[in-house]
Amino acid sequence: MATAALGLTACGGSPSSNSSASNGAVSGEITVYNAQHESLTQAWVDEFTKETGVKVTLRNGDDSELSNQIIQEGAASPADVFLTENSPAMTQVENAGLFADVDKATQDQVPSTYRPSTNKWTGIAARSTVLVYNKTKLTEDKLPASMLDLAKDEYKGQWAASPSGADFQAIVSALLELKGEQATSDWLKAMKANSKAYKGNSTAMKAVNAGEVDMALIYHYYYFGDQAKTGENSKNIGLHYFKNQDPGAFVSVSGGGVLKSAKNAAAAQAFLKFITGKKGQEVLQNGTSFEYPVGSDVPANSKLTPIKDLQAPTVDPAKLNSPKVSELMTQAGLL
Question: How many C-beta atoms surround the C-beta of residue 289 within 10 A?
Fold first, then answer.
């Protein structure tokens, strides 16, 4: 994919040199391939540049678009840092051998639950799987006890998802890791028969709110983001958290990593340390992304269910397998 096809913005006004200062401070400039929300990453960049003077150029795209581009570019990639919304794209780049180790000081800011066992990248934020439902049509006692129950005939035609999106495919990646290939394949085939496909989580939520479908499997922050605006697309929405280490309680880790080929590795590592540090994580706590902080003991936005109360299953982000998921979803007729 041509780099020119991606959004390109330059932030900050530091020296143009791609070097780091000899006194331990960082300087120069870095390029970030960004698949996170643009407004969130922009807030991180603005604070980082204010603190360090390092100029940051953003190239915006989506998870798989940018991971595939980095792999295609290899050692010639202009990227210093890669940020994603979900873990599978990080694992794809890691498996291609393109990440440097994350500095120990950054690792220490993020609990092991929210980073891969390999430490080739780190968690920078998280989002929870949730079943949204139309409160005018359903009550809690009528909802499935497990995400796996959505495969049952009794839920045929009642639920929706966005199977083509990286968000949903990360959920399936977790299901694959937790339950294995056969169980995942069976569930996906039942999903093809039982569910309605929408393009995008927000579209699926709107459909539930409008009564087109009773439920949708999405991430939590779509609801909170809409509520923080007009609430018109979520006024009829209830949130059902599966909890109990259910596959439907999966918490997806957004990732950040430094490329081995980074032209300014010191500043790249400093950026990753900053966004997982207290100031960077407070951008999540106090901003409008409504994603969960994962580093430096910063609590979530007060509107969110505390992350420990989600009772998420333990999944090593390094083991999420997007190629296999694509294969299984294609075989099921979902892609």
Answer: 22
29-34 and 237-240 beta bridge pairing? unpaired
Task: Return the HEC string of the chain.
Answer: CCHHHCEEEEECCCCCCCCCCCCCCCCCEEEEEECCCHHHHHHHHHHHHHHHCCEEEEEECCHHHHHHHHHHHHHHCCCCEEECCCHHHHHHHHHCCCECCCCHHHHCCCCHHHCCCCCCCEEEEEEEEEEEEECCCCCHHHCCCCHHHHHCHHHCCCEEECCCCHHHHHHHHHHHHHHCHHHHHHHHHHHHHHEEECCCHHHHHHHHHCCCCCEEEEECHHHHHHHCCCCCCCCCEEEECCCCCCHHHCEEEEEEEEECCCCCHHHHHHHHHHHHCHHHHHHHHHCCCCCECCCCCCCCCCCCCCHHHHCCCCCCHHHCCHHHHHHHHHHCCCC
Residue 193 has φ and ψ, to the nearest 5°, of: -80, -30
Q: Rounded to whole angstroms, how far apart are CA atoms 261 and 74?
A: 8
Say which amino acid occupies 290. Answer: F
pLDDT digits (tens, 9 = 90+) for 104-155: 999 999 999 999 999 999 999 999 999 999 999 999 999 999 999 999 999 9
Rounded to whole angstroms, the Cα distance separating 21 from 26 reads 5
Identity of the residue numbered 326: S
pLDDT in tens, 39-96: 999 999 999 999 999 999 999 999 999 999 999 999 999 999 999 999 999 999 999 9
